[in-house]
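Q: Hi! New to this. If I give you a protein sequence and the SMILES for pyridoxal-5'-phosphate, can you show me the bound structure?
A: Yes, paste them in.
Q: Okay, here:
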Amino acid sequence: MAVFYRGIAQTYPTAVRAEGMHVFDETGKQYLDMCGGAAVASLGHGHPRVVEALCQQVSTMAYAHTSFFSNHPQEQLAEALAAKYSEPGAKVYFTSGGSEANETALKLAWQYWRAKGQASKRKIISRVHSYHGNTFGTLSASGNLPRRRVMGDLLIDWPRIPPCYAYRHQHDDETELDYALRAANTLETVIQKEGADTIAAFIAEPVVGASLGVVPSAPGYFKRIREICDANDILLIADEIMCGTGRTGTFFAHEQDGFLPDIVTQAKGIAGGYQPLAVTLARAKVHQAFVDAGKGFDHGHTYVGHASACAAGLAVVKVIDDENLLQNVNDMGAILQEKLTANFAQHPHVGDIRGRGLFRGIEIVENKDTKTPFADEMKITGRLKQTAMKHGLMCYPGGGSARDDLGSHILLAPPFILREEHIDQLIDKLTLVFADIFDA
Ligand SMILES: Cc1ncc(COP(=O)(O)O)c(C=O)c1O
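A: Thanks. Here is the predicted structure of the protein with pyridoxal-5'-phosphate bound:
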């Protein structure tokens, strides 16, 4: 076997077929896909309209380098996304994955300030427990300790603020809004310390995915963050790689927090796994700065604006609209939360169940009253994943939600075609998983 696998000591079943809500391995075993891989399969597997659009594009013109040509799929998809953004005139840059989209966002921010004659604005502020990608730039801007640790001091050491994470950080005597403001104001403190003239951008996920286990911010948080960024001339980047493209019930996740980012990134669900595709959307003023300076954006990859990838993305966005799937995301999301709560909220090791739309997180704790996480040696996160796979369930357990690399959660991000019967199957399977791990 010549594959350099993700896990050196691990063996993986070989997936050979996928259809709707299920993936099948070569032995014929069926897995209920309740996480879309990593929140990718937004429409489920084998959606006929996406398959048809993709086959059509590949057979007509799979690819033409965008330094020579534009192409219809990228033009049409950019129009469709800009039309969904709440301010007119947004411009869209297409790459192949979440890290590339965020790297593009960081470079846009730096070059924006250079174009405006403020080249000293270079630092990127992010939050503890965040993940923005695996390139040097995006990992430097990430606060996910387990993922950063290996790269150590090779990474750029930018400032970070605490996340907005009410389950663990809101005080008993604080209202939600008090907490939201206290959490947001940590940004102001860091800006004062570092100097606003050194800071290019603040980056955050509107709903934190894998690093915390689906944590929306407390109401009012992002409005205050927006005010602080405006007052200090700092660009606000919303990383919607995981939570965007309808996952939380609105096309852009930030819509529900009532603020307008300067740059938004999306990936994963945008082409539903049918092609690798990612989006960096910039507000009109960001693009205008380059026009005014008479300078292009100094960036690019071979597959920027890839015609087949954009054709898949365009088909996904059309299906979401035509089949009114955001309604299903909201309806099924409410039922999912209700059934998870009814079945597991009383479980001695379930600390919190939260999320928005079809993006839900279950935080696992050793002690419910003290919210103490399990010790590292218990390897809860890995065991959750393996046991779920044994029971034919794909969910996305993650670690590090409590502190550093302690704490476990299960992330759920099922396809938008989810029906109530799948939720019931999930509940049955999760009951078996919890029994295997906690009652053994
Ligand atoms: C919020 C967020 N940003 C960025 C990334 C990086 O995306 P990719 O793995 O496609 O490079 C991820 C991946 O999980 C993510 O969840």
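A: The first strand starts at residue 15 and ends at 19. Let me know if you'd like me to explain how to read the tokens.
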